[in-house]
Design brief:
The protein is an alpha+beta fold. It has one domain (65-256): Umud Fragment, subunit A, CATH 2.10.109. It is 17% helix and 24% strand. The relative contact order is 0.16.
Length: 262
């Protein structure tokens, strides 16, 4: 009998039968496994990204919003020492640094607004007070009661301390805007002054803690261009006067966070 010849397909060495991959298919499979390799960022691209981010933050800080820390009690209980306040700069318009230009705001100051501004008596300070007198208003105070155009004002936000009243020579600037003209015998005190007629383009600012606030009663009227923004809301608060260590952690006033400033 003759020898039987073996039949069958030869497979590739070390594997089951199938077609051999062409070089192009192999490259495609390699891409499928790991995908295209990401191009590494160069130092110049990384630096450009960082500078772009910093520029965006600076533009927002200069023209859109500002953060403000309360470090005095002149606005209590509306704002307390240790409050961090978001200030809307778009509302009043923003000055362009190193120029005399100003980006117009979308709103005008309103009586009752809590505003941040540069006061005329000290160029190094930025302060926050409430707008109580508009151009053309007649303002006076009698025994701690504020009168606007002859009518007593209901001010639930105002706080008075049981401190004695007294004359202050700093308030004598008020003679120039007295109703009826200047008088030599005019002696204003902290709690009794006026009536004053607010000239055009000027504003009268007061702190809510009337017994301890350095405001328009003392340093005078405010020009429109000095306003920096409107206080919007409290984004963080802690009791900075607490004797406990780490008060920004242990004395957080959670109930004030998110409160609107009114």
């Amino acid at each position: 009998m003759g020898k039987r010849r073996r039949t069958g397909r030869k497979g590739p060495p070390g594997g089951s039968g199938g077609r051999r991959k062409s070089p192009s298919n192999a490259a495609g499979a390699e891409r499928g496994k790991g995908g295209d390799r990401a191009r590494r960022s160069t130092p110049a691209e990384w630096t450009r990204s960082v500078l772009t981010g910093v520029a965006a933050v600076l533009l927002l800080r200069l023209f859109v919003f500002q953060t403000f820390f309360i470090d005095s009690g002149s606005m209590r209980n509306t704002l307390l020492i240790g409050d961090f306040v978001y200030v809307n700069r778009l509302a009043m318009g923003s000055p362009v640094p190193f120029t005399g230009l100003r980006i117009p705001g979308y709103a005008e100051p309103r009586r009752g607004d809590v505003l941040v501004f540069d006061p005329p008596h000290d160029d190094t300070l930025t302060v926050v007070k409430r707008l109580v007198g508009m151009p053309g208003d007649t303002l006076e105070m009698r025994d701690r009661v504020l009168y606007l155009n002859g009518r007593p004002q209901d001010e639930p936000h105002v706080v008075h301390a049981p401190l004695p009243d007294g004359f202050s020579p700093e308030m004598l600037w008020q003679r120039d805007v007295l109703l009826g003209g200047p008088r030599e015998d005019y002696r204003p005190t902290r709690d009794t002054w006026g009536p004053l007629v607010i000239p055009g383009g000027r504003y009268f600012m007061m702190g809510d803690y009337r017994s301890d606030s350095l405001d328009s009663r003392y340093w005078g009227l405010l020009e429109r261009w000095r306003f920096l923004g409107r206080a919007a809301f409290i984004y963080f608060s802690y009791d900075r006067e607490s004797p406990r260590p780490f008060p920004w952690i242990r004395e957080v006033r959670g109930s004030r966070i998110g409160d609107r400033v009114r």
